[in-house]
Amino acid sequence: METIAGPPSAFTRVRRLPERAAYDEETVHAILDAAMIGHVGVLRENRPVVIPMLFGRVGRDLFLHGSVASQLLRGLAGGIDVCFTATLIDGLVYARSAFHHSMNYRSVVVVGVATPVDGDDKVVGLRAVVDHITPGRWDEARRPSDAEMRQTAVLRLPIDEASAKIRATGPVDDAEDVDLPIWAGQVPVVPHFGTPVPAADLNGAIALSPAVGRLGR
């Protein structure tokens, strides 16, 4: 498997339980593609700020978006150092001891400089964000107007410095606890989409769109 960009950096190397780490492109991209939301961390006036954000991936680039007036995106003409994270929870892990309770998860950390894009690249980024949540939805929706484009900032973050970390096992109890009369095991967490609910002002003659209808299939 191809690594993202050579050996992991000081920022992305997994030090705690390194056997759970992965640095190959296939694993990192797969987790990003499956995650619904990410968190972006920046420094503002020497204080950390972490903001949940929708995102999309095109090849080896992540695209982030938000209002041009947002705290995160304000004053970034030359780019901004960010730490982006995404996590999927796959199960709850119950051990016999409280100390060894855990979760099964897949997570990714990407660090780098996010830079603003414009023109065609901005459209590509916005499409990636929309289609990341619901593939095919961009082609069903009205395109952003010029005014909406001016109100929106889009950032490109190269996936060059990244790592994944995965836990996918049952409980790991201490040997002296194994015979305790306490239930231990796992409860899988499986994402599920409910039945689509039409907007209150939707014309009743308009059928459910194919992109939305495919969710959960």
Give an overview of the whole structure:
The chain has 217 residues and is α+β, with helices and mostly antiparallel strands. The protein has a single domain (18-213), classed as Roll (Pnp Oxidase, Chain A). It contains four helices and ten strands; from the N terminus they run E-H-E-E-E-E-E-E-H-H-E-E-E-H. The protein has helices spanning 25-34, 119-133, 146-151, 210-213, and strands at residues 21-22, 38-44, 47-53, 55-58, 61-67, 80-94, 102-116, 152-158, 162-167, 185-188. Strands 1, 2, 3, 4, 5, 6, 7, 8, 9 and 10 form a ten-stranded antiparallel sheet that branches.
Low-confidence stretches: none
What do the pLDDT scores average to? Answer: 90
- How helix-rich are the residues, as a percent range? 10-25%
Second CATH tier, the architecture: Roll
CATH topology: Pnp Oxidase, Chain A
Decide which structural class fits the backbone: alpha+beta
Shape: globular
Oligomer: single chain
Give the CA-CA distance, first to last residue.
29 Å
Radius of gyration: 21 Å
How much of the sequence lies in strands comes to 25-35%
CATH H-level superfamily? Electron Transport, Fmn-binding Protein, Chain A
The CATH class label is Mainly Beta
Tally of discrete structural domains: 1
Q: Sheet with the most strands?
A: 10 strands, antiparallel
Question: How many helix segments?
Answer: 4
Succession of helices and strands: EHEEEEEEHHEEEH
- Number of DSSP strands? 10
